[in-house]
Give the backbone structure.
Amino acid sequence: MPTMTEKILKAHCIEGVMERGTPIAIRIDQTLTQDATGTMAYLQLEAMGVDQVKTELSVSYVDHNTLQSGFENADDHKYLQTVAAKHGIYFSRAGNGICHQVHLERFAKPGKTLLGSDSHTPTAGGIGSLAIGAGGLDVACAMAGRPFHLPMPKVVKVELIGKLKQGVSSKDIILKLLSMLTVKGGVGKVIEYCGEGVKHLSIPQRATITNMGAELGATSSIFPSDEVTKHFLKMQDRECDYVELSADDDAVYDENYTIDLAALEPMIAMPHSPDNIKTIREVAGMKVDQCAIGSCTNSSYMDMMSVAAILKGHVAKENVSLTVSPGSKQVLNMIARNGALAEMIAAGARILESTCGPCIGMGQSPCTDALSLRTFNRNFYGRSGTLSARVCLVSPETAAISAINGVISDPREVDYELPKEPEHFLIDDRCIIKPDPKTAKDVEVIRGPNIKPLPSNTAMSDTIEKQVVLKVTDNITTDHIMPAGAKVLPYRSNIEKISTFVFRDVKAGFADLCKEKGGGIIVAGSNYGQGSSREHAALAPMYLGVKAIIAKSFARIHHANLINFGILPLCFINEDDYDRIHEGDVLVIANTHALQPNQTVMIENRTSNTHFPCKHNLSALDIETLLVGGTLNYIKANQS
């Protein structure tokens, strides 16, 4: 009676019992990194003394920090290329494409486990991989041959029935699910898709849905591996990678939902959250300033072909800035050869690199007070690089017709010819550098001046007595904590510098306050740390001396990252206690060396002379890791 998730986990489980919520450890087959997270991950891998990676396949992608306005990004890329050659890692060069799109095309396999230092790694679930996003240190550990630890997730069934109508896309399916479950609805869960509607969705369409499972907070999302999967792999010259995979007919799920594809209509996520969902019909006619098409969510060949079909013969309205980012070199080459790219250029589209680009604030920030329609996966406050911008998430079809009309428009109202899938994809892997084990020992790893040594943490004190240096509300994202964008991302390998940007847009002078107070404690609402997997949102606060975070609840990846870097995560038992704490209060957490799993922790508010209880879901391994100051310290202490 197992689900797809349970079948893959059982085949890879090497520690623990597969009971919901209990700690397990699994073997990881594949890893991926990208250049915004990869530099730190490989510095950590080097610190472990690993010669060659122990996975079946590890790939380093350059797709985030490609804007070279100084030497920093280019230096990181040189480091990444040389460290990959040294340690047996495939290297996808800048321009080859977005990691998730390229991995789906060239590497992802049904039934395999994939761990990536990017929260949208579950994109590969569209092809039947159990793909999980994690912090860079967890990925480094997987490359070193260490298991990946996680609580055994619940499994949620989403049955798709019917067939999408023209003008309605797979993006609308996941936006519909976000309206049903919210950005917290997938925490601790894997989302499995099944039903008759699945066979009508291509692999890229499925990947759009699994990509945005990250916005649900889900551990992963997965589709069955079926004849559609086999067809896609055959078109990529990878039919040998096909295995059939599905849940048993009588599989038992923790939750069950149904979506009728035929009843769906175009959707939109309004500012500033992916679950702030309305129908296009409800907001049609609103003036648009920017339409940005692409990202790992919607930049496949068929996405590009649909956009070109709608734009054909039209020009974007004079008030609209239209940008297009094809997802990979494969996609860009194909649309260049068949004329679709020319149609986009004729329509006034600005053709960007095959990278993440505007999605992570790396260029194309909209104008002041703009309404920006983006086919991306996140519309968090400030993520675009323009704090006053109102960013909305839509399908490529909605973005294209809205660019033409200059207002939010319903793609069902435009007559366009649906594109047809090619008979075969254009295969050209010359921009993927395969490692050569024969020459690895002779490779010199090149480190530019912006690449600084790893910061280290000290063992946790038995008593933490610190001031509350910040109090924040619900749904604080890693973008709030550690902003992205062209001014910040170049310092991903320089923790001293990047730490000056922590909470930049939330509390001015936060880094200086931490230095003045000798670190501190952060108090937060629910779902703290949602969004990107960027471990810098834990690593930089650790560098600033943050010792504990007390929240109503945590997002999964960020919770793990806090443990990795020795920051104690605690949760309120009585949420009313959150209201009784103020910035500047001095909190005391005593007897940390006696922490035990499933234990209540009493905290003293020395300022108000009160006490309040907290809980945690730390395993024995988590506690041991925290007490020594984080995962790297734990590995060093336990090396034989």
